[in-house]
Amino acid sequence: MPKQRGSMDSINLPDKEQLSSLSGGYADSRRVYREKGIDDFGNAVRADFNSATPVRMPERAPAQEEPKDEFDKLIEQEKNKKANAVKHKGFKIAGRYVQRWLVIRIAVIIVVILFILVTFFPPFTFSSTDGRVIEGNIFENRSLAQVKEDVLMSDFVYNIDALSSVNPNNYRVCTVDIDIKNFSPYKVELPGFSIVSCDPLYKDKFISARLNGGTCEISAFSVKTVTVEVLMNVHELNAEQFDAAMTSLVIRTNGMRKKLGPISIPTVPAFVFVNDSLEYHLK
User: Fold this and answer.
1) N or C: the chain end with fewer CB closer than 10 Å?
2) Mean pLDDT of 35-48
């Protein structure tokens, strides 16, 4: 009996018209695009990012350095030796080896200190061995009020109350010569000197001090001698007390400035002790 072969008569192709009438799905979407045009995406599915779940990316483990072999270690040691050799290179001073960085640091500190000393500190100022008493009448052709006015305007006043008597014999003008040594590249401008202190026994005897000739200038790298005039009330003082009072004086510069062109730099005042070897004779 011959073997029956299978038949495909029972398989039918889908009806295209029925597929076109289906709602939803891929077939419906294709139909909508075909009927309404490619620009109409009203029926397209849109993503909703509000309900999206964040995705956490796995953290990357830090890369581990590969172990160095002996050759790499040798190269690194040689580099460190060269760097240390440059850093610790130094000089031989007084039989001892001093590192270069230490020498440079000391040199910079010395330069800064020298700059501060030269710029902001006063020149060397000393009392010389020259001093005298000027004979004269301070009231010549002037009244007591006029003398006081002149002292207040021209001098650096210490005690104006000591100028109270109208007797010219009660007053003396004593001079003190001051050597000023300017070893800086700056020109020094000096308006005058003032009295700082004296023996407490004679503090009510000194009236004022002034620089003879007014403001003076000392050129750079030069030495100049200036004269300070001290006005003093000698009433009730004997010759020994008069000399002791003058040699107990301490005076200082007032308004000293250093100038480099148009630049004016205020300096620390210089203090001067009147030389003990000076002798002032009361006549």
Assistant:
1) N
2) 53
**Residue 102, both tokens:** 């230490």
Q: Which amino acid is at 147?
A: V
Give the pLDDT confidence of 223-265 residue by residue, as tens digits: 999 999 999 999 999 999 999 999 999 999 999 999 988 899 9
Average pLDDT taken over every residue of the chain:
81
Sign of CA dihedral 65, 71, 74, 75: negative
Residue 224: exposed, middle, or buried by beta-carbon count in 10 A (0-12, 13-18, 19+)? Answer: middle
Q: How far is Cα 33 from Cα 247, in angstroms, rounded to an integer? A: 120
Q: Averaged over 111-136, what is the pLDDT?
A: 91
270 to each of 8, 112, 218, 230, 251, how far by Cα in Å? 129, 21, 14, 17, 8
* 223 bridge partner residues: 181
Which residue from 91, 93, 75 is spatially nearest to 83, judged by alpha carbons? Answer: 75
270 closest CA partner among 251, 253, 258, 249 = 253
| Side chain identity, residue 222 | S
Supply the pLDDT for residue 260: 87
d(CA 231, CA 210): 9
Q: For 160-192, what is each residue's pLDDT tens digit?
A: 999 988 999 999 999 999 999 999 999 999 999
Nearest of 268, 272, 273, 269 to residue 253 by alpha carbon: 269
Cα 246 to Cα 279: distance, rounded to the nearest angstrom: 9
pLDDT at 74 over 90: no
Backbone φ and ψ for 87, nearest 5 degrees, come out as -65, -40
Ramachandran angles phi, psi of 152, nearest 5°: -65, -30
